[in-house]
Structures are given as C-alpha cells and as structure tokens.
C-alpha cells in the first residue's frame, strides 16, 4: 500500500463506530498487514501482549481501555516487558474518545488527539508499512489526503462519463480537475467572497440526486469567465453572481462539465470540506498529475522527497550565490537594491517541467530572499518585483503543463499572504494575468531561445483559453532585459533499450547534428546538448538531474565532447544518490547532478559527494577533479605486459547444457565416458555465492554416442528446438543443427583462471576477484584471464583498480559494473620489475590463503564490509600498500589522489590530451 491508500483506509476506520475488541486488528489492516498475519495475531501463540492488547514483534503494541484511562494505559505499554522483548517500535492506547501513541525509537513528539482525528496523524505510523520518509509525509499530509480524494472523484466520474476517459476527451477531463482545484483553494483562502462559497453553492443549488450538479458547476464556471459589467446581459443565475471574475484564461473556452452520480457529488462536497489553505504546490502537482494518468496511479502519494532533492540542483545553480550576496549586503540599502533588481530579472527555465516542482520551489526561495531584502530596507509591504512569468517551462503532457501554471499561481498567492498579508494578497490576486509561461510541447523540437529569450523579446504564449497556447504568435517585450537565465530540471532518462521510435527520432534530431555514434547515450543527454547550446548564447548556466550512467562507461565519450564544446565547462557535480520515492521496496533511480556554464562567466567549481563539498580547479566529465579527458574502450590492454581479459562462454541453451549437483551425479553415471565431458561451470553469482554448477562440454566426436544416452539426447533436442525458433537468424541458421555447441566457447584454463565478476556491490571495499581450477568453464556473466601469472590478481584486487573501474566503467544503479575493454584494457600500470611481480604474487597468495582459512564462507560473506575477517582485510591492505609504493613510492592519501595519478598515467600512456569538441 502507498501513503494515499493508507490515509484513505485510516480515515475510513476513524469514521466507523469504535469497536474495542476489533480496533487493533482494523488498525493493522489499514496499514497493509496481510490477512494471515491478522489471523495469527488473534491467537495467544503469536500475540505476546501481556496487557490484553495486540503485540506485533518489531512493530507495535496496541491496547484499548476504559474511558479516561488512555494515558495510564500508554504508560503501562511503555513499561511492559513484552514491549521490550518484542522490540516494538510503537505503542498505542485508545478508549474510543481519545488516542495516544509514541515512537519508542525516535525523539519525535508523541501523538495525542481526539479519536476521530487520529487519521490526521497517519504519517506518524507509516514505518509500519515500510515507508521511511515519514518527515516529508507529515509535512505534506494534506496533499496526500487531497490527492486520494481527487483520485476517487476522478475514477467515479469516469464510471458515469466513460467518453471523458477517451483520448478525445481526456483533455477536457483534465481541464475540469484543474478548475476544481482552483475553486477549492480560492474558497478556503478568501479569494472568493465568503468561506466555502464553491462547495456551499454546489451543495445548496444542486439536487441531492445529483441530476443537475453538472449544470450548477457549469454556471459557476461561466460566471468566473464573465466580467462584472457583462453579467446583466449574460443571463447568469443570481447565486452564480457571487463568484468573482477570474480571467487568466482559467475558465475560458469550453466549460462543459461531466455528469455526476450521487457518489461523485458526495466526493466533491467532501473534498471541498478539506482545508485547502494547507496545499503545498511544491509537491501537490506531482501527485495530482498521477490522478490523471492511469499508468501512474499506482504511484499516487509517492512523490514526497522531491523538495530536498530539487534544492540540490537550485542551490548550487544560483540560490547559494543570491544568499551569499544577501549576506554580503548586510543592511546596505544600495547593495540590497542592486540585489533585488538582479533577482527581478532572473529567469528560471525548466525544459521538462512536469507539474512545475522546480519552478515553484525556485519562485518561493527567491521570494523569501526578496522579502528579507525588503525587510532590511524598511519596505516589508512592498509588492514583489518577481514576475511569475520569469519561471518558464516546457512540458510534453498537457495536464502537467496546466497543473504547473496553477501551482505557480497558488505559490504566488501564498507568498503574498506570507510576506504582505492576507488582505493585500486577496485584493491583488484577481483577475488573473492572462499571460502564459508554461508551454506544452516536445522540448527537443521547440526553440528554447524563443520560449525563454535571452534578450528583451519572446514569443507571446497567450490565447482565449489558458489550456491552448499556439506557438506562432507575435513577439512582445519582457520587463527583465539583461537578466540571467538558469536552466534546471529532471528530464526523462530512458537508457539504452528503453527508448522507443519517437525518442530515437528526437535523439537523431539533436545528437545527429554532431555524430552518428550515440547509441549508448541516454535520452536525457539531449537536454544537456540543448542546454549547452542555449547557455553559449545567454548569460546563465544549467544544472540537470540525470542517471549516473551519463558520466560513466561507453556513454560518456559519446555525449560529453558535444556538450563541452567551445567554452562550456562543468562547474558543479553531485555524485550518485537515489532520486527515490518513499516506498521501502522502491530503490529509486541512481542519479547525479551536473551543472554546466561558460568559462567566460567564471564560477567556483564544486564537487559534492553527498556528505562533503570541496572546491576544485576543474571538473572532468567523470565528475572528478581534473581537466577534460575521455577514456575510450580498447580491444587490448594499453600496457602490453598485461594479459588479455576475455568474456566467458555463452551457452544459449535454455539451461539444458547446465547441470546442478544432482543432475551432474545422475548424468555422470549414465555412461562411462560422460564424467570427462562434465566441467565445473561458474558465473558471477555462482562464484560469489558459492553455488555449485556444471556443464556438458561435448565435441563433434561425442555427438553420436551422446544420442544413445536418453537424458542427454533429450537435452540436445530441447536446445535444437529452442534455437530453431530464435528471433536471431544467425542462431537459427548456424546453431540449431549443432545443439551440443555453446554459442561461444571461451578458452578453458589448463592451469587456472582468474574470474572477475561482471557486477559487484558498491559496499565492497575491494573487487572480489578469484582463482578457479583447470578445466573450469566460466560463463559470459563474468570475465576471465586464463593461465596468467598470479600477480595479475593482485592488481585486480587492489583499491587502485576499484577506484578506476568505479570511475570509467558504467554502473548498475550504484554497483560496480565491470568492463574488460574499459576497466582492464585501459588500466594504467607502470612497468613492473621481477621483484615487483614477485611481491605482488606473494600478496595474491596471501589473499587466497586468508580466504581459504574461513572455508566454507562464501566470497559474498567474506567481502561483506560488516563481516569481513580482520586477517583478510589486513592482507588486502598490505596488497594495496605494496602496489601503491610501486606507483608513487608511498601510500596514496585518498581516492582523489589515486584517480589523479591514474588519469595522469593514462594520458601519458595513450598520448591523449584534453579533447574538447570545437
């Protein structure tokens, strides 16, 4: 269950008559506990409460009590030995009139409220559902509640108006929802004359059977689109005349309203009873957007963590600089005035703005700085100089674009209330400005310089209807001539394999101007190209969120030479972090933030690893300190003394040539010649987890007698059938008739093989390479070096090598993803003397012996940083010291110094210098 579903279930529970016996079970059920768990908790064997309540181990101890005994019962729960034994996180007591609860693991204040109101505190208990970002959810509790109610209304309306859910009318449905949101907000904030004007009017003048609800709402919408002077001739009903003229295009155009069932009418009135002054436009847009997108409804209420993440973009882009100038200005009126004038001319541009989160947060932060300036200048009531039309966006989806406009309108009003007072804010709010500042369309096919012009003119996006904004209109003057433009946002990522035809067309349109080799580049790379082109012609900079893969592996040299053209440089880098939602089992997307600007507008350069920020001289596309350099994959090691690293064997057999331990024993007994044809078989997980598998390795000479063994013949037949229907012509034509062959058979070691897993956890301090015996077949899910000297293992197992591959190879989320052509073949190794090789061989042997001492522990167990044996850690440390002394005569101080040395050596060994596309 997500937070919206939980809030709904808890609200329904709070409305039911209190049942002292059933409440604990109903409460747990509302948080998604399964029926089997509830059934067990009804038995004394599973429920260990010593107070006659319900105790769920590691979760909660609940007790109901007689009236007036809630505080005493909570104290008893706190002191209960059973609570301590079960390590319960929460305790909860209620008598049906009041409810008290406490989180025993945190310093958060306890909950104490009237029983019917406990649903307002649902965020307090969300860890019970595995949802961890409780703080953000508490801060956005209203948005979650409103989103859930609006979703129920949306779904209910579509039941009775199915045509409104079609492609042809979905646009109208989205318009209707946006208008409703404005009405709910306007009536609760005093923008409308009289509290709850909209909800009360619908409730009083629409029939209870809901037959004319649509007509009443339509009449209200018509009133808000009719000027006061024009109303006598409009035929409006007297009760509709109470609504103000809104203008701004919000209620213009088609005012058709879907028909309401009695349930839908009830939902509408219930939504209107919520306190819409609590709306948070920072995140509300993200959630309401999901209401209108059937494919996103499962994510309802999952967008709470965006605000702090968005500030990771906006702060280094320009907000930190504004705050620093504010600090420097102190109380100097002239400096404060200059800063205010500067802020008024800044344009913030999000070319993938979604529902406007980045723009709203930027607007609110800038208003806060402006308010402090006004306060210091003794002009606290001054009207803002920051026009919301300076916050420009492009969004592909029409409803998201509409919500972005609405979110900025709401944010402007809320800021006016905060900094100028409610009376002044309401007096100046209506009528709305008709000018539009969010463009609906494909950002990769629009002219950014027209939408957010660097000079004093730009396309006028204005129409009779707010929801239709033609692009071919005359240009108008802007008030912020000479201002800065900052591009920000979180564009769609779409890695290799996830791009569809239209995305490929967009990439050809953007990247095809520069190169034909962009197959590895994520879709988000197009925004970096366009941002680079934009800021070369403007005064400003850009900072975008992207998948960390754009700064790794093969993708990097296909993208960044065309971003960092002319005088463009990286001025800010935030290393990998999770841009995630609040669901415990949703790992989120691993992202980086990259800020780019022109060298001409010199900025300090900062690298942020999430816990520490440091200023550097230059930032490379690898998001490390250093000048521009692109490490390209090569087929052979750049140090010719290193052996070749190969990809393992590819069975392409549907598992028929692979045997588990039992199958190995059984088949090995079927014919005396078969045991010699069964070889150990290892992929990365087999090696790391200690799994034992084997494979059949049959030669052409074995084929005739293999068919005399029924089980082997059956397996070969399965392989033949599988390959015969393959989508790949090569497989059908070349492999179907040789089912005993692997698709690719790598060399089988005569002495030993070094196995290199293709992926390894980021938590491991060293890459867990190892040795496998002669005759082993290594699968294509790992890499291998066959029959090479043991000192190569010492190189692979070093911290130096881990740092290198972590930088130049791609990653799977944040885990290390190995590449032989990028990680091994490019690895800079100095010329090794015989003594160097002997020392490293000894280190490799020590690592293997230290592992052997802990048999049967798996490699995964041994390299878990929380379980790693001290003797194994010690030999790895000794290996690092031995190797690093070969490089520079001492230990490196840190990973930064390691990378600097490796890049320096790589440059010398390859003869490559800074490469910037011109």
Model description:
By secondary structure, the chain is α/β, with parallel strands linked by helices. The strands form six sheets. Strands 8-7-6-11-12-14-13-15-16 form a nine-stranded mixed β-sheet, sandwiched between helices. Strands 1-2-3-4-5 form a five-stranded mixed β-sheet, sandwiched between helices. Strands 17-25-21-23 form a four-stranded antiparallel β-sheet. Helix 1 crosses helix 7 (141-160), helix 15 packs parallel to helix 16 and helix 28 packs across helix 33 (895-910). The longest helix has 24 residues, at 306-329. It is globular and about 100 Å long. Mean pLDDT is 88; it is low at 296-305, 457-480, 581-587 and 914-918.
Please give a quick description of this structure.
With 918 residues, this protein is an alpha/beta fold. 41% of the residues lie in helices and 13% in strands.
Which helices and strands, and how do they pair?
Elements: H1 3-15, H2 23-30, H3 35-41, E1 54-56, E2 60-64, H4 70-79, H5 81-85, E3 90-94, E4 98-103, E5 111-114, H6 134-139, H7 141-160, H8 170-188, H9 197-205, H10 213-224, H11 262-272, H12 281-291, H13 306-329, H14 333-345, E6 347-350, H15 357-376, E7 391-395, H16 398-420, H17 422-429, E8 438-440, H18 448-451, E9 457-459, E10 475-477, E11 485-489, H19 501-511, H20 525-535, E12 540-547, H21 555-563, E13 568-579, E14 589-598, E15 605-608, E16 613-616, E17 646-647, E18 658-659, H22 661-668, E19 678-682, H23 684-689, E20 693-696, H24 703-706, H25 710-724, H26 729-735, E21 752-757, E22 759-760, E23 770-773, E24 777-778, E25 782-786, H27 791-796, H28 799-808, E26 811-812, E27 815-817, H29 820-824, H30 834-852, H31 859-862, H32 870-888, H33 895-910
Parallel strand pairs: 2-3, 6-7, 6-11, 7-8, 11-12, 13-15, 19-24
Antiparallel strand pairs: 1-2, 3-4, 4-5, 9-10, 12-14, 13-14, 15-16, 17-25, 18-20, 19-20, 21-23, 21-25, 22-27, 26-27
Helix pairs in contact: 1-7, 7-11, 7-12, 8-16, 9-10, 12-15, 12-16, 13-14, 13-15, 14-15, 15-16, 16-17, 28-33, 30-32
């Amino acid at each position: 269950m997500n937070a919206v579903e939980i809030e709904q279930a808890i609200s329904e529970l709070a409305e039911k008559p209190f049942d002292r016996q059933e409440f604990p079970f109903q409460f747990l059920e509302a948080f998604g506990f399964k029926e089997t768990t509830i059934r067990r908790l009804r038995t004394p064997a599973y429920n260990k409460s010593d107070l006659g309540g319900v105790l769920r181990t590691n979760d909660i101890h609940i007790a109901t009590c007689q009236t007036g005994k809630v505080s005493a019962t909570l104290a008893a729960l706190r002191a209960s030995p059973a609570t301590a034994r079960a390590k319960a996180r929460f305790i909860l007591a209620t008598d049906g009139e009041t409810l008290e609860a406490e989180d025993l693991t945190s310093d958060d204040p306890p909950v104490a409220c009237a029983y019917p109101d406990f649903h307002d505190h649902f965020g307090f208990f969300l860890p019970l559902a595995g949802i961890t970002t409780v703080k953000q959810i508490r801060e956005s509790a209203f948005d979650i509640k409103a989103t859930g109610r609006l979703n129920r209304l949306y779904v209910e309306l579509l039941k009775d108006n199915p045509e409104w859910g079609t492609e042809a009318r979905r646009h109208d449905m989205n318009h209707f929802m946006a208008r409703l949101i404005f009405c709910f907000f306007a009536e609760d904030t005093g923008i409308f004359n009289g509290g709850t004007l909209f909800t009360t009017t619908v409730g009083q003048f629409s029939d209870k059977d809901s037959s004319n609800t649509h007509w009443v709402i339509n009449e209200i919408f018509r009133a808000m689109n009719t000027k006061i002077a024009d109303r006598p001739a409009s035929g409006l009903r007297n009760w509709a005349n109470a609504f103000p003229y809104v203008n701004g295009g919000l209620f213009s155009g088609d005012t058709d309203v879907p028909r309401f069932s009695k349930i839908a009418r009830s939902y509408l009135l219930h939504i209107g009873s919520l306190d819409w002054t609590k709306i948070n436009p920072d995140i509300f847009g993200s959630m309401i957007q999901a209401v209108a997108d059937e494919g996103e409804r499962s994510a309802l209420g999952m967008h709470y963590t965006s605000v702090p993440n968005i500030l990771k973009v906006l702060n280094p882009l320009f907000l930190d600089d504004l705050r620093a100038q504010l600090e420097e200005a102190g109380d100097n009126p002239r400096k404060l005035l200059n800063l205010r004038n500067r802020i008024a001319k800044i344009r913030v541009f999000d070319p993938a703005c979604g529902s406007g989160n980045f723009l709203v947060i930027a607007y609110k932060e800038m208003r806060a700085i402006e308010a402090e300036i006004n306060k210091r200048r003794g002009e606290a009531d001054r009207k803002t100089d920051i026009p919301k039309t300076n916050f420009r966006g492009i969004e592909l989806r029409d409803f998201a674009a509409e919500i972005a406009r609405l979110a900025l309108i709401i944010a402007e009003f809320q800021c006016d209330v905060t900094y100028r007072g409610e009376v002044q804010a309401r007096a100046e709010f209506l009528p709305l400005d008709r000018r539009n500042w969010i463009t609906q369309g494909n950002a990769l096919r629009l002219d950014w310089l027209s939408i957010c012009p660097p000079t004093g003119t730009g396309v006028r996006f204005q129409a009779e209807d707010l929801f239709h904004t033609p692009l071919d209109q005359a240009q108008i003057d802007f008030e912020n001539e000479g201002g800065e433009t900052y591009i920000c946002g979180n564009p769609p990522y779409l890695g290799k394999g996830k791009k569809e035809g239209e995305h490929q067309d967009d990439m050809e349109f953007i990247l095809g101007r520069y190169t034909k080799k962009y197959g590895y580049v994520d879709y988000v790379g197009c925004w970096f190209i366009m941002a680079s082109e934009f800021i070369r012609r403007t005064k400003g900079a850009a900072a975008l969120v992207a998948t960390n893969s754009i700064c790794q592996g093969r993708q990097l040299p296909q993208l960044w030479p065309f971003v960092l053209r002319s005088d463009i440089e990286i001025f800010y880098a935030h290393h990998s972090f999770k841009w995630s939602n609040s669901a415990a089992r949703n790992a989120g997307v691993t992202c980086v933030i990259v800020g780019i600007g022109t060298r001409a507008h010199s900025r300090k350069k900062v690298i942020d690893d999430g816990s520490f920020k440091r200023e550097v001289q230059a930032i490379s596309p690898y998001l490390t300190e250093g000048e521009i350099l692109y490490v390209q994959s090569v087929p052979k090691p750049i140090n010719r003394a290193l052996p070749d690293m190969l990809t393992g064997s590819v069975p392409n057999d549907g598992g028929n040539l692979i045997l588990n331990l039992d199958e190995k024993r059984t088949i090995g007994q079927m014919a005396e010649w078969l045991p010699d044809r069964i070889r150990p078989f290892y992929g990365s997980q087999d090696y790391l987890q200690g799994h034992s598998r084997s494979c059949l390795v049959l030669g052409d000479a074995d084929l005739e007698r293999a068919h005399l063994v029924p089980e082997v013949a059956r397996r070969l037949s399965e392989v033949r059938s599988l390959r015969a229907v393959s989508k790949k012509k090569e497989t059908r034509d070349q492999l179907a008739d040789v089912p005993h062959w692997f698709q690719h058979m790598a060399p089988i070691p005569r002495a030993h093989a070094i196995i290199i897993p293709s992926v390894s956890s980021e938590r491991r301090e060293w890459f867990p390479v190892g040795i496998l015996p002669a005759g082993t077949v290594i699968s294509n899910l790992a890499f291998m070096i066959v029959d090479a000297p043991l000192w190569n293992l010492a190189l692979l197992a070093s911290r130096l090598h881990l740092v290198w591959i972590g930088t130049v190879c791609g990653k799977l989320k944040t885990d290390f993803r190995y590449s032989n052509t990028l990680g091994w073949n490019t690895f800079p190794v100095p010329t090794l003397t015989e003594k160097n090789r002997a020392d490293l061989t000894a280190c490799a042997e020590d690592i293997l012996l230290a592992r052997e001492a802990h048999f049967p522990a798996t490699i995964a167990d041994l390299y878990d940083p929380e379980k790693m044996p001290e003797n194994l850690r010690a030999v790895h440390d000794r290996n690092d010291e031995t190797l690093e002394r070969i490089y520079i005569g001492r230990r490196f101080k840190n990973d930064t110094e390691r990378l600097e040395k490796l890049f320096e050596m790589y440059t010398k060994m390859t003869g490559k210098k800074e490469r910037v596309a011109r």
